[in-house]
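Contributing: when you submit paired examples, paste them exactly as shown. First protein:
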Amino acid sequence: MYPAPPTCIDFPSPDDTRTLREVNLDWFRTARFGLFMHYGLYSLLEGKWENPYVDNKGAEWIQWWAPVPRQEYMALKEQFTADEFDADAICRLALDAGMTYVNLTTQHHDGFSLWDTATNEYSSMHAPARRDLVGELTDACGRHGLGSFLYYSHGREWYHPDGPDTATEPSRGVNSSKPIVDTDYFHHGEDVVLDRYLDHVEAQVMELCQYPHVSGIWLDGIGSFKNIPDGVRRSRAQELYDNIHAAAPHLLVAYKQGLTYTEDFYAPEREIREGTVPHDGRPYEICSTLQPASWGYKAADDGNHHGPDWVMEQLRMAAAIPANLLLNTGPRGDGRIPDEDVRTLQEVGRRLREEEGSI
């Protein structure tokens, strides 16, 4: 049996000729406002590794930019407890903010999974947390009537030995005295078998498709494939889309601003840049973050997160496109959303209720 669509989407009536995917897409066109969450092992480091904070870089990229040696980064798994990750509280906050859906980074570029994957043991289920956070959150979204999207890093992966970043970018770590490329682990040159990595990706994404109450799969890492010869074809992205839709026909698929341009919607970062995203009638979603630049939690930004005035302006700008706004918060290492983001989202919800119909 296929997973049911999110509870916020009604099944078509008997005389409705739309497919479940078309129903889902029609809902998404009016969804307006969603909560993005970048959470993973990088959250434990708070944007700092031995030396000063990673200035002007996202804390979620700290393994790459610091860089952090692979074995030392992987050892962070033993500190991952997610003690304060509360799926019901997250959903209540999203609803209080006037949001209609949630998107969680199920696996960012570091390759650490937040669900019970059968592909490896580098996951929250094999950390002290012993929890399937994806399952908890998607179940909570179903209970609270929220749509849920699952972010997955398709084009960048710093754990798999054949990942596109580590296999095709020799500049990795070149500016550091401690490059994180482990030549005894990562494959290079003719030893790289990209299909080996993509088989792994497909197995993991198919696992994500089986969660109930999920609205779609949201892919990232577009730069890796756009920067290699014949990268779009070699990415096997269209094959993956087809397999997602076969496994769960209602699911929507996005790949940032578009890799094949057959995605169900486009999700450019921070703004739509002319010429990078097609105007072909598909919906847009703008993703942005409450921290000044970082998506993962960065302690150096405490007290400097964007406030409700900025969020209201982002909502107005997105509505004028029109596009949904997917607004990110970076939970702390224990899974707790920063207090200043909680206050901002609560105030935004209050204003939206007060100004109902004005945006």
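Second protein:
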Amino acid sequence: MQRVHVNRYAAGLTLAVLALLPQTTASQGYPNPYRIAEGWAQLPNGRPMGAVGKTVIDPDGKHVWAVVRCERLEDQARFGDECRDSKTDPIVQFGPDGRVVKTFGGGMFIWPHGIDVDKDGNVWVTDAVATNRTPKGDTRGQIVVKFSRDGKVLMTLGTPGEPGSDAKHFTSPSDVAVAANGDVFVADGHGNDGNNRVVRFARDGTFMKAWGKSGWGPGEFHSLHAIAIDSRGRIFVGDRGNNRIQIFDQDGKSLTVPWTQFGKPSGIAFDNKDQIYVADSESDDVQNPGWEEGIRIGDAKSGWVHSFIQFPWGDPRTTTGNGAEFVAVDAEGNVYGGEPAPKRLQKYVRVRP
């Protein structure tokens, strides 16, 4: 009898421990403490919302910067070059009320994708256009541009219109993140034909180093889609094609086993309480069976997921690419999702602690 009692206790303890471990299956069971603020983002003069790329919060903790890809093109064949023929400004700053404060960048990009704002308020934007989407002779794309907060070009990394994999070239750079000391980290490689590497530059644009290649092992990537820096200075890379987040120090040393508990990561952000927010716009029964699209929220130190903003309109049976592909969180804990396919900038208001 004693043996049975011990075994039952051990089994119960095992289950309790497993319940505390980071989830490796879909996160539908987590609570959602948010509600949608319908119609929050409002473009001026009746401008329809184009595909929304990455979103990020201004250093003031209130204003929201977003990539809005020019025209609202309904032709699915144009997904990937929406700004090719447009002079409309794709870089947009929204006020806390959802109204536009300023715009800039018209005509400079073919497919603006990633964005970050450094501590001085400068705005960094990537053009991740694929090489086969670049018109012959076009000198745009394959760059990261640093703007002043008023839209003046201050620096360009990469060689416009020229893909490559050396210190002066990118191939479809997905995202950019700027560290507290001003160093710049670029997730270089959107899609399977990208470079699948992280590139580090000094604040003056001097190339420092690069790490990564195509593959499935530690420090290897497939379609790295997001890059973000937490309060400890760690580099988080959304290795979307491999369904995982990889974490490095700023010299490219791997710090932990990859995190798979956040689904198929497209966007990564952190709040002022060391919580991590991960947007998953791709999980479905084709690309990542058993998972659902949405925004998973957890502890940035342990990686334990505790909340899930489920995308309510997706069809998990097909490869839809709906929902938030990018995510940001303001100083009050409100969450913003950039949704390219539905063409929405969604605001989620926290309603429960």
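If you have annotations for the second protein, write them as plain sentences, like these:
The chain has one domain: 31-350.
The radius of gyration is 20 Å.
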